[in-house]
Structure formats: C-alpha cells, structure tokens
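Checklist before submission:
- one chain only
- standard amino acids only
- sequence pasted in full

Submission:
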Amino acid sequence: MVQSIERILFVEVRGSQRIEPDTIRSYMTIKPGDLYNEEVVDQSLKILFNTGLFADVAIRYENSGLIVFVVENPIINRVDFEGNKALKTDKFEEEVELRPRSVYTRSKVQADVQRLVELYRRSGRFSAKIEPKVIRQPQNRVDLIFEISEGPTTGVSSVNFLGNKKFKDRKLKGKLVTQESKWWKFFSSEDSYDPDKLAYDREQLRKFYLDEGYADFQVISAIAELTKDGSNFIITYVLDEGIEYKFGEATIKSSLPNMDTDTLLPLIDHRKGNKYKATDIDSSIDNITFAVGEDGYASADVRPRVKRNKEEAIIDIVYIIEEGPRVYIETVNINQNTRTRDEVIRRELRVLEGDAYNKVLIDRSETKIKSLGYFKEVEVNVRPGSTEDRMIVDFDVEEQPTGELSIGAGFSSAESLLLEIGISERNLLGRGQSIKFNIANSERRKQFEIGFTQPYFLGRRMSAGFDIFHIDNDYRRYSSYRSMQSGASLRAVWPMSDFSNLSVFYRYFQEEVSSYLFDSGYNLADDYNADKSEIGYSYVIDTRDDYIDTTSGWTFSFGQDLAGLLGDSEYIRSTTGGKYYYEIAQNWVLNVGANAGYVYNYSNKKLRINDRFFKGGTTFRGFDRAGVGPKELITDRPRGAEFFAIGTIELTVPIGLPDEFGLKTAIFSDFGIIGKNDDTNRVLSNQQAQQILSDIDDPFYDLNAVINSDYSSLNDACAIDSVGLNEKYGTLCTRFVDDATFRATVGITLNWNSPFGPIRFDIGRDVASEDYDDAKFFRFSGGTRF
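Returned file contents:
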C-alpha cells in the first residue's frame, strides 16, 4: 500500500515504439512532484485507454516513481474488401473510418462493420454478413480485410393496408415508392426493402389522402416483418382515413395598413364546394405571400386558420396576414459547388443580398436550382446574421454527373429497328452550357446532329444556340420521295412566364429530293435540289401537372415559318394546336385537343412536295403514315396537303391492374380534314404517258391505241373523254384526287412502361374515309436507353 503522502519523483514509460514517451506523459493528469493519489492514477489510466492508441496500459508505483507499461495498438497497413459485387469498393472506402496509417482498434473495426451492414441494408440486402480479418505484419502493422457475404436482395413479398375503405389497396400501392416483388420487375430496384423508404411512403400516403379531401387522415402504424426464411418483408400500414371534406368559405383577414383583401381573393386556388386539397391551401399561401410582397410587405406572414365542421364535412379557411418583423438578407452563400460556377447558380436566384426576406422567393430559387439538373441534392438553410434583422441564406448543393453517353434502341411498325448513339453534356466546364452529338439510324431515317446551347445569352434571360445536321428521310414507302437535308440553324428562347416561352430560329440547308413520280414519268424537276432558307417563331404555353402522367392542365402552341430569303422555296407555314386535360374521376382522364396548319405559297413557283403536310400514323391514328389526304392515283402515292385541321378526344380509363404493371389504356377518336394541293394542274406528255403505260404488264399497250387520231396529245384526249379513257384504262386521266372531306377514326391506345422502356400500341379503325385512303388497324412503337 503506497502512502498518499509520498511524492512522485519521476514517470517512466516502457513499451512504447512509435509514440514518444513525452507524448504519453502529456496525456496523464499526474506529474512528477505531485503527491501519489490512487484516484488520480486511475484517472490517468482511463485517459490513456481512451486515446485508442494502446491495446493495454498498466501503471505501477516503484522506487518513488510511476512506471507506465503500454502495448501500442498496431497501425493499419492496408484496408481491403473481398466478396463484394453488388456494391463497389469506393462506396465502402467513403463509409469506413479506418484508413491506412490509422490506429487499429477493435471498437473501430466493429463500428465500421456496422456501417457496412447498414450500407447493405439500405441497398436492400438484409442478410449480408461481414467478417473482419486481421493479418499481422512486421513492425506492429496489420492488414485489415473485410470478408463480405452479400446474400440475396431482401424483397417485399406483400404490402397490406388495414383501415382503408375509400381507396382500394392497388390504388394506395401505386402511391408508394416501395413495391411488391414480382417476377416482371427484374430490372427494378423499387421492390427491395429499405427502412428509409418506409418513412417516405408514410408521408406519401398522408399527402395523397390530404389531397383527396381527408384532412383528418393518419397513418397509425407502419410495420415491416421479416419472413421466416429471411428473404422478404411483409409491410402493413394501419390507416385512419377519417371523413371526406369539401371546402367551405374562404376569407382573408389582414392587419396590414391599406391592404385591400378583396383584391387578394382571386389568388385563392379553391372555391366553396370543391374537394378539400392541402396543396390548394399551400399554393394559395404562396400566391398571397408573393402578391403582398410585391406591394412592399416582403416580411408579411400568411397563415391559414382551419375550421372543421365534421357534421357537414366542410372546412372553412381564413387566411390571416400579419406584419412580420422586418428582416433582410445579409448574405447568400452557395456551398459545395465543386464544379458548377457560382454565377451559373446565382442567376437562377429570385433573392439577392439586401432584399427583404421572402420565403416564397427563396423556395422558388430552390426549385429553379433543382430544375437545372446539375445537382443531386439542393438544400436551403437560413440562419441568423450579424444583427437581429439580418439573415444568412445558404444554398447547399451536391454535384452530380451531367455528361451522358447513351445507346438507344427502338422499334415500330413504321421505322422497324431504330438504333441511336448520343453523347451530351448539360453543364460544359461548369458554365451551364450544353452540347450534344447524336447519330440515329433506321430503315427509313438516318440522322447526324451536333448542337450547342448557351443559357442566359449575353447576360439576359434567354438561351441561344446552334445546330448542325444531316438528315436522310426515305418516305418512298408512304409517299413519293426521299429527302436529304444538310445545313445549320440558329435559335433563341425567351421564357415569358413559369409556364410559357417564345422561341425564334433561322435555318439554312441544302436539300436533295428523289421523287418516285419522276421514275414513273412525271416531270417534277422543281421537286429536286434546292437551297432552303427559313426564319420562324413559336409560342408555347404548358400548364400540365405532369409531362408524362398528366391529369390536369392545358397546352397551347402557335408558330410560323417564313421561307424564301436566300432560298428557292417561298411560302409561309402556320401551325397551331392545344390540349386540355381534366380528371373526371379517379384514373379517368379526359383529353380534348386540336391542331391545324396551313402553307401559303406567296410566289408563282410550285409548292414542293416536302413543304406540305403529311398526316397519318401517330398524327391521325387509324390511318397509315401519310395515308390520308391528296394522292396521285397512277402511282398510288400521297402528295401532301397545304391545309389540315385535326381534332382528338381521348379518355384514359382504368383497366383494373395494379399501378406497378405500368399499363395505361385509353379510348380515342381522331377526326378532321386534310386537303388542298396544287398538283392538280400538272399534265402528262405523250412520251411520259407511254412510259407509264409501258410499266403495265401487257405488251399490246400502245399510246396510239389509247388516243384517237383526232387528239393531238393524251392531255387533249383526257380533256374531252376522261370518263371513257378511265373506264378502259383505269386512272390514266384521273391523276390526282384531293377531296378534303371529313375523316374520322376510333380506337384504343395501350401504353406500357415496361422494364425495357416505354412501348405503345394503337388499334384504330376508320369510320369516315375515302376509298383511296390507306387505313392502318394496328401500330406499335417502343424503345429504351442504357
């Protein structure tokens, strides 16, 4: 027993190899000259253990001094991973804390094992096992090997709901990210279990019900149970739907001076009697906040006061506007943009240093940055500034790859097999510029294209760019010609609002047309080689809620092309169109649309065949491509129209299958008129007529047998006796037909978002047509990128 009154004369360290004794002594709380104290010695012992530098430590009092015995932990020589295939090694290296030249400890190894196990669980592999293996090396070094047995992906065998009365299970399953494991989902990762997705899915269910009128909805519990064999999870959601509400009265109260609340009422996105939707309240708050901010009250606070009437299932909303504290933005910081330049991000901001704090504009800035597509994550953090009335806004971004090498494959009844190779970069050198290179090849289309786009051209809110292209379109199966175009174009786009834009372009190219009718004897020399110069514009409005799975909104477009300046063709082409979408019931979406076009030839030159409109296929379902409109009967080839007006009515209907099948079907009717063609004035010479007749498999055909000696030419003969000649020799005199009569089709469209890419099937039947139209009962198309 050491007497506590004895003084320590020295502290000696034994066993150290890499660590200097003075460093070890500096960790200790007891020093030479101190009186010996058991508690202080124990405290020093704990401190040395807690450094993680030592595998063992002992302290002994001897000859009026302390002897410190240490066994140093080894240094890690290398860290390796074996057996991993599903996850790459670089992911592990980012996750683990142990690195080469760091100190090895068992606790750190176990912590890293847990990190790796969690990484596998997040990727859906709950049966993964990781065993650390330590290999001793000279000089107190070790190699650390993590031996990994990944195991199979842990799927989701079933997703169940309890308490849902209004919506069926398959409807709710379609709102979840987590999907049930099915054999056809071999390309999908959404059927693997992830606990983080479970929390996200709870929120998705809540949002769905709140937008369907169920303001009291709650997810009571979400339980994931592992099956006995450990291969799958069974997920069960217990729901309390509550009752369905409608909106009642909506009013606005304001404490702001000189604020006329009546002028703000139109900004409320819901009306009395409408189904309750939480998103309508959110958008109304944004609208009011933005409008009040424009009136000089940027710090105004808009809060909804909700009053439920459960007996009548009505919710009244009072929007309360109060003057918030005057707060200004001191600094706007852009963080973690390692590649994208600051100015590329800042030009998307709707707030600047010195502006009054406005949450709506900050949220819009976040949305604008996300829409760039340059970042994997965008997070906004607001923190206090140097004074109480100052705030600092941080936009934290995480860069993601913006270059793409794509190989595409597609197929259709019109194009057969389509192959496509493309290289693109959406954020060139971090400047926000985009460049693309694309090659496409199919039986009927060959295309080469290079394009460049500069956003915010000359510092303005507009984008500008150019394209260089070569396009070879072979339309001889459907029409009368083959077209090869080589040229370049300049373009610019101005955003007019969040939902509309105006674009202008200039295009110059050389075009070579090979006409089928020339081979059969027609003199169509003006249909051949030409230089084309076009300038044009288009205005587009698009308010759709979703570009792919649209349920509401509308679109409108109008554009004109003027050809003639420095070119051989002279015309004005005008096109317009629009669509309206309305969800009449759950999964029942009505789509009504129309489009029209007209080509005006303002010169005495004939309008070239490829300057006209060809309709059919996807543009007029139920007819073959270019299968409806003016036609040359001798060769049975379409000649194109100068005018068209086509309408469509389409109703998307549920087919009773779960949403994860990716199948959507619609019934449709397309209808309209296509007509007007100036080819009707063309005539045949005797030599050309003889060439046409010689194509008929009858050696006795002779032009002299066709026309009487009284006629100087076939044209004269047809002018006098076209009926008789047509009866005897088919359509020799009736060369063109252009009835411009009403056509209509009905049919069914099936869209399948398959594991291989989107596939579309169209089944259509003509109910109003002409005898010479080409009907097409079935069409399909599809493709993928990888």
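Reviewer check: The radius of gyration is 38 Å.
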